[in-house]
Amino acid sequence: MSKRMMALGALMISATFTGTVAAQQPGAPASQTPQTQQQQMQQQQMQQLPKASEFSDKQLDAFADAQKDMSGIQQKYSQQLQANKDKPEEAMKVQKEAQEKMVEAVKESGLELSTYNQIAQLAQYDADFRTRIQEKM
């Protein structure tokens, strides 16, 4: 698998993780189906995100750099997680360490975590924006 594809995979994993955390928030009516709730949540998230044009090339370059680091971190720690799959406490420690390394990679790229998350979320919904990011990887 090419580094570009691994970075895109990391981007999608980041966006999915962000979406999963948001999906666990209380407040959705219980009468809706999970699919309807997810669609409504995605629409709300899209409305809250900045437009693609609001992100500078410098921010997207920083995001691409962070994504490159993320793919290495994810590769390293996924192997460790696999090795500890029968040891939940160890696996949680590995996961926490991986998250800390990912946060560190974002900060070292020069982006705020909130900006990184906004870019990742927008890339999940906007194919043109995602292509723009891929070109920088």
Commentary on this structure:
Residues 56-133 form the DUF4168 domain. Keywords: Signal. This protein is an all-alpha fold. The protein has a domain at 1-8 and 57-137. The protein is built from six helices and no strands. It has helices spanning 3-23, 34-48, 57-83, 88-109, 113-125, 127-136. Helix 5 (113-125) crosses helix 6. The longest helix has 27 residues, at 57-83. The model is unreliable at 4-9 and 15-30 (pLDDT under 50).
From the spread of the alpha carbons, the general shape counts as globular
Q: Terminal Cα separation, in Å?
A: 14 Å
Counted beta strands: 0
Q: Radius of gyration, Cα only, in angstroms? A: 16 Å
Helix content: over 70%
Quaternary structure of the protein: single chain
Uncertain regions: pLDDT < 50 for 5+ in a row? 4-9, 15-30
Q: How can the largest sheet be summarized?
A: none
Strand content: under 5%
Quote the average pLDDT.
78
Can you write the helix and strand succession as a string?
A: HHHHHH
Count, helices? 6
Structural class: mainly alpha
Protein name: DUF4168 domain-containing protein
Biased composition (Low complexity): 23-48
Keywords: Signal
Biased composition (Basic and acidic residues): 84-95
Write the layout of secondary structure elements.
Elements: H1 3-23, H2 34-48, H3 57-83, H4 88-109, H5 113-125, H6 127-136
Helix pairs in contact: 1-3, 1-5, 3-4, 3-6, 5-6
